[in-house]
Amino acid sequence: MPDIQSTFQAVTTKRELAERLGSSLKMLAYYLYKLPPEQQYKKYDIPKRTGGTREIYAPISGIKQIQKRLSHILQNYQPAKFCVHGYVKERSIKTNAYIHRRKRIVINLDLKDFFPSINFGRVRGLFKSAPFGFNDEVATTLAQICCHDGKLPQGAPTSPVISNYICRRLDNELIAFARKHKINYSRYADDITFSTNLQFLPTAVGHIKEHKIVLSNTLRKIFQDNGFTINEEKTRYALRTNRQEVTGLIVNAGINVPRKYIMRIRAMLHAWEKYGLEAATKEHFEKFNYKHKHPDYPEIAFKNELTGMLNYVGQMKGIGNRVYIALYYRITRLDSNIKLSIPEYIPAPEGTTVVFCEGKTDPLHLEAALSWFHQQGEFSDLDLHFFKWRSDLDINNDTLLQMCQTRPQAKRDNRIEIYLFDRDVPRYIQKAAEKDKSYKHWEANVYSALLPVPEHRDFNEICIEHFYPNEDLLKEDKDGRRLYTTREFDPESGCHLKLKEVYYAGTRAQLRCKYPKILDSNVRKTGSDENIALSKNNFAKNIFHKTGSFKEVSFTYFKVIFELFEEIIAQAK
Predict the structure, then answer these.
(1) What is the DSSP pairing of strand 353-357 with strand 417-421?
(2) Model pTM?
(3) What are phi and psi of 67, to 5 degrees?
(4) Distance of alpha carbon 138 from alpha carbon 200, whole angstroms
(5) Burial of 449 (0-12, 13-18, 19+ CB in 10 A)
(6) pLDDT tens-digit series, residues 501-546
(7) Torsions phi, psi of 57, nearest 5?
(8) Residue pLDDT, tens place only, 393-404
């Protein structure tokens, strides 16, 4: 069993649990017992395309971080059943649909009120039973972390993985049922699919009556005994002579995207080609704004949505598919820089200052550092939300600068937003800061700021990793990997100055820079092509999760960053 799971299973008290989840007993008790339930989550409704609304309960930042850490542990604790495709790494709606392609009959079921039907008692029982086996105190506390108003909230990071654990018994029984009656079974969250090539549908599954599927009492009982209710309105079947759909994909032949989806992409491209981007954007959000969003950057949001839809087609149909290729060339003719992507909206708790960084790992470092200062009783009034970019976005200084330039006109509130630039690209220093200052006001409480120079560094080209003292910056992980700096290598030969077998395989120009640039790639050992350096991403994750030797690191030099944030916030107010 991996170390992360064994240390988790060894927990016997609330205090140990809080520490394992990167918090303290005092903070955990505050979130669970002192903070009123109505302040622990923010409720909002998302309109369904089929009518009605779906209730979403988003936890506040502190609870969310604890839940994220718990979710990470649980996701790697026990492998998911082969029939489960929702919320599982390397599985998707495509792998779910693949099982049911080219079948004579496909049956779709939906579980009613899926997350809310998983109550506190079921979650507590889960943590008391195998494979966890926690005592009453720990199991109860874990259930309190995961539940809101006595049930799993849709919107909490822990709810998906908990639901998969709760459904293991259901999955086992349906796997056995499917094998017995020679049918296929898969589950994607609350979407259940059966399929078969048998000439006649087994009576144990159900029968067709007046063009509707009537499920057998045997099958219904399996769901009832596991605490779930079938949504009768969404129970349907399709023969191969009709359109068979599984989690939004057509499975009659191979895996395909619905024709309406392709037609919508073509219509968006046609409007852009014929009437221009501004008119196409206006028409699109008037007709198809199902979730009633008000994008901060409408035209960029339109391009992002169109690009995302096209990427989806490529993932489902394959990038070599002729339909995808034709759409790809149409969109790149309209905008050769279509890869630019900025979020449509900025989700953050009301009243907090939002910080955007150029590096995707920067928020992890800053959040860990601020949490450390809070524990020391410093910056207790500093309420910051560090925006996390999606992993598929290509974020750089140009992206941040564009947001600084356009955001003041798009904002509809008085919230403070700070866009934080590294100092290692000189041309952005003058653009991101005013003379004799480390920041710049762009109006409407939009600020750009440069990372300040920490007192232990004798150079100005600063990035976030430089705020750690060298003994922490060069720490090794459990596999012996670490970050390197250019000052460790001979700029002419590329050889490491102390480690004889280690050399830098990149360009020598990198090693000739005037400051110690951080290297996380192209570091080799003689006779091997494998990079032995720790990636910046894993360096950040190790610190954030306090893994191994990274459990204790010094955040002392981060203080100047938060002092800068305080100065900006004071000016804004």
Answers:
(1) parallel
(2) 0.59
(3) -65, -35
(4) 50
(5) buried
(6) 999 999 999 999 889 999 999 999 998 999 999 999 999 999 999 9
(7) -115, 105
(8) 667 787 788 778
Helix (H) or strand (E) holding 408: helix 397-410
Question: What phi-psi label fits residue 530: left (phi over 0), alpha (psi between -120 and 50 degrees) or beta?
Answer: beta
Structure confidence by residue, pLDDT tens digits, 27-73: 999 999 999 999 999 988 776 655 566 788 999 999 999 999 999 99
Structure tokens at 191: 């979407």
- Residue 289 to residue 556: CA distance in whole angstroms: 47
pLDDT of residue 271: 95
308-359 pLDDT per residue, tens: 898 888 878 766 567 877 888 788 788 876 654 344 456 666 778 999 998 8
Tell whether omega for the bond before 347 is within 30 degrees of 0, i.e. cis. no
Secondary structure in 3-state letters for 521-545: CCEEECCCCCCCECCHHHHHHHHHC
Helices 217-225 + 168-180 axis angle, to 10 = 160
* Rounded alpha-carbon distances, angstroms, from residue 298 to 281, 343, 410, 416: 7, 10, 9, 21
Residue 186, judged by CB atoms within 10 A of its CB (0-12, 13-18, 19+), counts as buried
pLDDT at site 559: 97
Residue 111 contacts residue 230 (beta carbons within 8 Å): yes
CA–CA distance, 292 with 22 (Å, rounded to integer): 36
Beta-carbon neighbour count of residue 126 at 10 Å? 20
The answer to whether the CB of 505 falls within 8 A of the CB of 452 is: no
Q: Which of 554, 541, 552 is nearest to 4 (CA)?
A: 541
Which residues have a Cβ under 8 Å from the Cβ of 484 and sit 6 or more positions away?
474, 504, 518, 519, 520, 523, 533
Q: How far is CA 266 from the centre of its chain?
A: 29
For 185-241, give the DSSP string.
EEEETTEEEEEE--SS--TTTEEEETTEEEE-HHHHHHHHHTT--B-GGG-EEEETT
